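Interim report, section 4.2 (structural modelling).
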Amino acid sequence: MILGLVFWFELAIKLAAAAAVVPLIGMVIGYGEMKLSAHMQSRVGPYFAGGRFGWAQLIADGIKFIQKEDIVPQEADRPVFKWAPALVMLGTMALLVVIPFHPSSDYGIVSDLDVGIFYALAISSVSTIGVLMAGWSSANKYSLMGGLRAAGQLIAYELPLVLATVGVVIQAGTMSMQGIVSAQVAQSWPFVLTQFVGFAIFMIATLAELTRLPFDMPIAESELVMGYVTEYSGFRFLFFFLAEFTNMFTMSVIAVTLFLGGYGFWGINPDSLLSPLIVFAKVGVLLFFMIWLRWTLPRLREDQLQTLAWKWLIPLAIANLIVTAVLKVVI
Amino acid sequence: MTLADWIAEPVNWAFLAMAFPMVLAALRVVTSRNVVHAALFLVLALAASAGLFLLLSAEFVAWVLVLVYIGAVVVLFLFGIMITRAPIGKETNLSHKKIWPAAVASLAVFGVTFWLIYELGEQVGGFSDTLPAVGQATPTEILGEGFINIYLIPFEAVGFLLLAALIGGITLARKDLSPAEEREGAGL
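Predicted structure of the assembly:
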């Protein structure tokens, strides 16, 4: 079997689509965050770019970043410094593969892996390496501190994230993303009703994994300039920026899939073309909550962050797991 | 299988594309003059071996490799290196004095492992020279059944061993305090 021209053509289209989707998601969420935060603070936010409501603000920002000079500090470790944003982006983009938008196996999901949610957790942990690489190779004390804080935080919150997920996997009896959604559609209520402890843990851990407020110590402006992204400029900075917003999207979609019933909604046939819209609506609610929390809560202290993870979330997640497993066998 | 057949199979090209970087990266792990670079080459070697598992349709093992080894073990390596000393550039004193005994020991481990796998393979009826078809991943249920039913005792034994190693590691690393120091809380 020699791979034909069709294969390469398809591959090129898929790559182009992936390359277009990430900036699009990033721009929509970035614009949403700018506008929402502005209104929460009684400001107007982006106003002039593009005519009405400043809708073209993020396009202008993107073009600005791309035409800026790509600076590598003289003392930096050049190859590691240059590869770090790519690795962060890889951990983000690879997540898009297993997100179900529709029950159809042809076009509802890129690839419905048998180990779907496990793959998502595994591949997203690659980003941590990219963050550490960025922090170390910048040859800057602020960057190194930011990278170390980020790594410590990501290790601590990876555990509650995985444990909260396992509760859902036990209830659904499968790790396939489509399987988890169809289990919820079949019983006609989402897992959040029985797994609300898991859902709360998952969302807190997600905020920490995204290093967003109230967990943004790795890039705390008042202490570390910008943490591990301090030395980055131009499109490499843009990569980190886009990766953060795309990650918000992918983590929200995973939360929707696991806990909120994915494309299922009462009274709507999941086979209809409304399914992707339902997913996006649910994701939009979660994204609004993330942005709302970011512009409302103050930053935690580093020791409070670690205490929350190790002394509260992990024991709670394990207890949730035990209860779920026992009930699964008993009922 | 002739060489021409072997070349005509795209899976073999995929194998080479994984195996070559893996061997090169593994060599660079031990020859690199910078500890952080060595750890990053280890990431590359592990990622390539995860790719080899994917070629063998062992999806679960491949992603375990990514989650546990790349996502946790190497991250902790890097974390440990960076929190102690991590200069940018080359270092001079990275070689160990007993490099040759170490080489012999690692070759011996490789030989024993290879022989064991070969022998066990012969006992279960030899190795197949064809790969599982693409998309025929082993269902996770079968793996779960294996862990919890057939191989429950070895699985628990390994878990117990890891727990013992963990406690041993903590015991070795902690500083023992004299009773007087303990009263003052000097270890904090």
